[in-house]
Amino acid sequence: MTEQIKRVGIIGLGAMGMGIARSLLRGGFEVHACDVRPEVVQQLVADGARAAATPAELAGQVEALLIVVVNAAQTDQVLFGEHGAAAHLAPGAIVIASATVAPEYAETLGTKLLAMGLRFIDAPISGGAAKAASGEMSVMAAGAPDTFAVCATLFDAICAKLYRLGEQPGQGSKVKMINQLLAGVHIAAAAEAMALGLRAGCDPDALYEVISNSAGSSWMFQNRVPHILAGDYRPLSAVNIFVKDLGIVLDYAKKSVFPLPLSATAHQMFMQASAAGFGGEDDSAVVKVFPGITLPAAKV
Amino acid sequence: MTEQIKRVGIIGLGAMGMGIARSLLRGGFEVHACDVRPEVVQQLVADGARAAATPAELAGQVEALLIVVVNAAQTDQVLFGEHGAAAHLAPGAIVIASATVAPEYAETLGTKLLAMGLRFIDAPISGGAAKAASGEMSVMAAGAPDTFAVCATLFDAICAKLYRLGEQPGQGSKVKMINQLLAGVHIAAAAEAMALGLRAGCDPDALYEVISNSAGSSWMFQNRVPHILAGDYRPLSAVNIFVKDLGIVLDYAKKSVFPLPLSATAHQMFMQASAAGFGGEDDSAVVKVFPGITLPAAKV
After folding, report:
1. Which of A30, B110, B125, B238 could be cross-linked to A7 through a Cys-Cys bond (beta carbons 3.0 to 4.6 Å apart)?
2. Inter-chain CB proximity B262 and A185 less than 8 Å
3. Residue-range domain boundaries for chain A
4. CA distance B86 to chain A (A)
């Protein structure tokens, strides 16, 4: 086996990043961590990670850098902003970027890093916080074969499924974008279905059970409707994430003048929820755009 | 155990009805069958069923009558049309109606049958032809407890899950209607996602595999996208079924002035496919509404 990466940096310790970092520690990697919230870094230091004050400081210590932030702007900031990592990485170091971004952004980033003598894997992730914590998430990845070759044990530690979707950066982000199209439409559809059920006087718990076992089910229906039934809108993934992700989908399609009627409709529903003040709530709060129904109250 | 129904009539031997009839024969019931296509009835006679020339003729032979047709108009025809069954059923005989119909229709039908001295179970079905054949479909049912009590072995023979959703006819059809809302939106969303993937140059087989294992998946995505990948639009369930079913959903919501943005959009997509000449094709042919892409060719 090709000699493997051992010193890994991770920037962004949110729900996904923290789980990935812990999976790397369990996998025996030397983990360097950085986050805008120092107290979160300290939690990880207690588990054996090494803290870095800035991306630049972290960059000098690692052979590969995972960036687990929420969007392209943050990815850019981490790499090229003040105290950014890119200029301080060793020649040939590998950048693995996991935010959901426009495919064109991933392409451009790959070109830019290559010109700096660095290597790049376009690697959006899916599966949620629980799977990240157990090292079982999915990665939709694109990059050069020799780059994947030295990251085999790294990906083994953090994911159950590594989909290699091509050699060109952007090919991972395209598939992730289309996954987000469906994820967003399915969350909004789950909300619409439950709203109509409440309006029609159905028992919402029975409706959830029947549909979960029928042809109308989706991964998102099964995962998000329990939040509605429990009246629990604490954000695991927020409404505003789908304002962004469906926005990426629609911007991409607009460039080639391609119609996406359901994505456009779902995007409007998330924007309506955000504009009404629910942008920071769990994405299942898109159900609050439906008037004339009484949602299940929070279980105390 | 309460004495059970033994002589069962079934009217409508399509993909679902034929499977249900065979499940009843396997379960040891005396099965009387009727369909507008006599040759289909003869297939079932070879397996032990008894043929009836008309619903009226069948009605005199049975304690319970399953109606497995596609809509309310056919249900009405079978019961109240020329040679209809209703007037010939024995007092207290049970009508079990399985078409997807408007909840108000099921309510009215229950009242009408009750006034004739008959009993009624509102019993839409879900699961597809394969599950009907193996006796493992789902039934979303509403009716009186004593009616269910004498049909216990009947439902055991034909379904894996009997959901009892209330005593009032219409309560089963409401839940089925909401399942169809999701089923229709999810088929149209699967088509939209695959269309964008093709436009973006993704490998469609890889896209299917990744999304089937990710948070963007749905029952319909997993079930219908293989038809698109194989270029096989022979109808298992046709585009026009969702023109009808999403029409029922939207009509229902319109009566109480309730907005359903995604259902309305998906309904337009199925109507566009139908108007373009694909109404009789498999519902996955809704993908043909997307211009500017080359769909996978039929595998010969």
Report:
1. A30
2. yes
3. 7-168, 174-289
4. 29
